[in-house]
Amino acid sequence: MNWIDIGTPEDIPLRGARVVKTRLGCVAVFRPAADEVYALADRCPHKGGPLSEGIVHGRAVTCPLHNWVFSLETGAAQGADAGQVETYPLRIEGGRLLLDGAKLALRGAA
Amino acid sequence: MTRNLIIIGAGMAAGRLVELVTEAGGWHITLFNAEPRGTYNRIMLSPVLSGEKTYSEIVTHDDGFYAERGVACRFGERVTRIDREARTVTGASGDVLPYDKLVIATGSEPFIIPLPGHDLDGVIAYRDLEDTERMMGLAAGQRAVVIGGGLLGLEAAAGLHARGVSVTVVHLMGHLMERQLDEAAGYLLRRELVGRGIDIRCSANSKEIKGKDGKVQALILEDGTELPCDLLVMAVGIRPSTGLAKAAGLAVGRGVHVDDQMLTSDADVLAIGECVEHGGQVFGLVAPLYDQAKVAAAVLTGAEAAFVNRETATKLKVTGCDLFSAGDFAEGEDREDIVFRDPGRGIYKRLVLRDNRLIGAVMYGDTGDGGWFHGLIKDATDVSEMRDTLIFGPSFQGGAALDPMAAVAALPADAEICGCNGVCKGQITTAIEGGAGTLDAVRATTKASASCGTCTGLVEQLLAVTLGEAFVLPTAKPICGCTDLTHEDVRRLIKSKPLKSQPAVWQELGWSTPNGCHVCRPAINFYLLADWPLEYRDDPQSRFVNERRHANIQKDGTFSVVPRMWGGITTPDELRAIADAADKYKVPTVKVTGGQRIDLLGVRGVDLPAIWADLNRAGMVSGHAYSKGLRTVKTCVGTDHCRFGTQDSTGLGIKLEKALWGSWTPHKVKLAVSGCPRNCAEATCKDLGIVCVDSGFEISVGGAAGMDVKETEPLGKVATEAEAVEWTIAFVQLYRENAKYLDRPYKWIAKVGLDWVQARVGDAEERARLVAAFALSQSIYQRDPWADLAAPEAARGFAPLADLTLEAAE
Ligand code: SRM
Ligand SMILES: Cc1cc2nc3c(=O)[nH]c(=O)nc-3n(C[C@H](O)[C@H](O)[C@H](O)COP(=O)(O)OP(=O)(O)OC[C@H]3O[C@@H](n4cnc5c(N)ncnc54)[C@H](O)[C@@H]3O)c2cc1C
Ligand code: SF4
Ligand code: FES
């Protein structure tokens, strides 16, 4: 693990998302509840929709392009659709958001 | 041999430690406390404040106790230094005392926000008896402001209120006690406290404290609001008291580092209570601190023990506010929520499950089963067997799984079904057996389900149970899977109950999910802002991306930008600014739209605030080409140029667009004004079209030229331009107040009937009301979103949170 400080939870609107740019595409950081955050690849497996622009509800996000719904916890498509979004370890510590750089690097290697 | 044990701090953790160590014997204890007294039950300060208890009732260790156990008390004396080498501590008196073992139990310090004026007299925290006495010193009728809507802040506020003090709570977050409660429970709590007369302001940021002659006078909020007060209580959090330990060179993180034996980095020094950090965790509730005291006592008397942190539960000690929260809502995989709401009785319960185990519970209104749920969480009990009935608590367990019909059938005759009208099951079944075979008939005979309607499902189940095959459950289409109610039901209930926030809708109407879904959220957000323009605040996170970003998202994730061109009229300067923007932001496509304006397609999301700012500078505002709101008002050239024109169609179009822009509507709204019946602006296929004639203006509504093609139908004919504007606004407002979200006007008119619409808009009094209601809403919503979002603070939201492309590769 290689935790990278990317900001504070308050930088993300409640029930919203922000993106983190990486060399291999954007990672969407979601905040479904005040002190709950998740990081997923910002690319819908359907047609590449930016998940960070979707509506966040419960612990899920709806893709803004064609309404596929994904679990923020597992990255799996819900309901009838089949698809999987990569998830990344993210945690809050001392009021900071820490994203696992090791897994991001693996993404590059893969 | 008796050895010397020095304990620094006589708080709740130390109190327990002294009891246990003196029972075992073997130590001579010296107990320092900065407060001029021994241990008392700090958590009971709130009942003292509210007058339900006296201080003497909450003292746990009195002088007699210490004398009996031979404890040397140094109360009112702060320890100023620890010398680990010499194994001594120095007290404020200058005395230096040797120890064989030392226990640090200094608790924590309240956090004081360093606002200008925080050091004025009358600005206090809420931690000890002195603070409590300060609050008790206020007379009825005086004013207090409490910053912080967490556990402590609310206990302070409720206690002050009980003394007749008028209290305002200022809370930074969107709902109360956000650490322990979700929004629904936070909403119920707020409703209760506001109902008592406590003024509560959420999402409110404090800016400075105003004083006079060194005394506090008022709190000023970021938005300029001034809240006068005689006392200001800050209850915004605590910090472990680590100064002494740090100065002594002990390992300190957020708190004093301790291992499972409560030993610090020096084996002769232990630490317990809120001042410690164990396994990355710091503490704020008393239960785990007592466990720590137990472990420390064992270690000091040579026994074996290890501290294990356990789940703690929170209750708010405000009489009449029944809430409970336990466990973990924050991290983890594969969670599931079970939500139960009983709007009639103001009850909300939510359980969080992971891997068939309960990991968190929040309850409001009925917390009787809290202990049982807490037990399930602590024991990590597998709940798969009872999952379906888990939320109903222990009394429902043990039998076969309940199906809803059987549950209704099993209810006793005196079970209340309709909370609003106090109708019980027996009355309803009697009515059904007496011939009331439909929901409406039951409503008419018993009044059940005739008020808020949330028991409709239960009444229908009773019909089904009583009538059997003869009753077919009606299939009115609910908004989405979160509720059984239809759009029409929800609109009606939002107005009649009245409901003014999303958590209020979710709770009072029994939503089955914690906070809705992508289908209901945009609809509810619209209904609330249309019905309560002053009270409700638009929620961007409940909007589809286009309305949140104020631009249409393209299939490649870029956006389109369409500035308004009032009535289709532009100027060379505007065109130049558009051309410059297209160059500057490398816009791949510039297109003239079917709505008489120009579309810049393919703008990158991060460039939006900048291109908007450029267009704003040239005097242009958002064209709302993305909104469920006013889109375009198409016009023809009219009397200014055209040889057939009868009225100034261009001028009227511009007036209408200037009156209506910025308003939100159930679906998009497009208008057109033609200067004569040749109708070059295609007014007769718009949501509202005006065709000018010699004698005035013919207004028609309900046209369509999208997925359906439909000619408009006449709404009325008026003589003057001013009336044409008035009728148009009244029509749009009527549509805003009544239509289902995502119904274009033609679909809505088909449901309510053109006659009804004509009667309403045609009635002078009602028309005036509609125009006034629209004006009120526009006073808030007619703002250029581009200008708002191009402002530096808001524009930041369009940029990435972090850019790791520059990080060195691993
Ligand atoms: C830009 C434009 C096409 C053009 O290049 O001319 C356009 C573009 C879109 N139209 Fe349109 N419509 C445009 C004029 C029209 C017109 C003609 C008009 O307004 O005179 C119609 C038929 C009239 C009507 O509205 O009934 C029209 C009927 C639709 C419909 C069908 C609506 C219906 O109720 O049947 C949709 C779908 C919807 O809104 O749900 C739609 C939706 C869209 C969306 C927003 C699709 C989407 O959700 O992404 C397109 C956005 C493209 C983009 O990325 O910018 N567009 N669209 C026109 C913008 C006008 C403007 O200046 O604001
Ligand atoms: C109003 C209120 C209501 C609360 N309600 C609840 C509740 O409902 N449930 C719950 O679980 N918890 C509640 N708490 C929290 C609970 O009171 C604390 O968790 C608990 O008191 C912490 O115990 P402690 O021994 O670590 O610290 P404390 O009780 O704070 O004791 C530390 C003592 O050390 C003294 N001290 C500090 N530095 C020095 C020094 N250098 N020399 C000498 N003495 C020093 C301080 O004066 C203080 O008396 C509440 C707290 C407050 C203020
Ligand atoms: S409708 Fe046609 S004819 Fe009439 S004024 Fe407009 S352009 Fe002229
Ligand atoms: S691209 Fe996400 S649903 Fe189609």
TrEMBL record, chain A:
SUPFAM superfamilies linked: ISP domain
Pfam families tied to this protein: Rieske
UniProt KW keywords: 2Fe-2S, Iron, Iron-sulfur, Metal-binding, Nitrate assimilation, Oxidoreductase
Occurrences of domain Rieske (ranges): 3-99
GO molecular function, one term: metal ion binding
A single GO BP: nitrate assimilation
Protein name: Assimilatory nitrite reductase (NAD(P)H) small subunit
TrEMBL record, chain B:
InterPro entries, per database record: BFD-like_2Fe2S-bd_dom, BFD-like_2Fe2S-bd_dom_sf, FAD/NAD-bd_sf, FAD/NAD-binding_dom, FAD/NAD-linked_Rdtase_dimer_sf, NasD-like, NiRdtase/SiRdtase_haem-b_fer, Nit/Sulf_reduc_fer-like_dom_sf
Protein name, per record: Assimilatory nitrite reductase (NAD(P)H) large subunit
Pfam families noted in UniProt: Fer2_BFD (PF04324), NIR_SIR (PF01077), NIR_SIR_ferr (PF03460), Pyr_redox_2 (PF07992), Rubredoxin_C (PF18267)
Residue ranges constituting the NADH-rubredoxin oxidoreductase C-terminal domain according to the UniProt record: 313-379
Bound cofactor: record note: Binds 1 [4Fe-4S] cluster per subunit. Binds 1 siroheme per subunit.
Lineage: Bacteria, Pseudomonadati, Pseudomonadota, Alphaproteobacteria, Rhodobacterales
Cofactor(s) listed: [2Fe-2S] cluster; [4Fe-4S] cluster; FAD; siroheme
Highest taxon listed in the record's lineage: Bacteria
Sorted UniProt keywords: 2Fe-2S, 4Fe-4S, FAD, Flavoprotein, Heme, Iron, Iron-sulfur, Metal-binding, Nitrate assimilation, Oxidoreductase
Gene Ontology terms describing biological process: nitrate assimilation
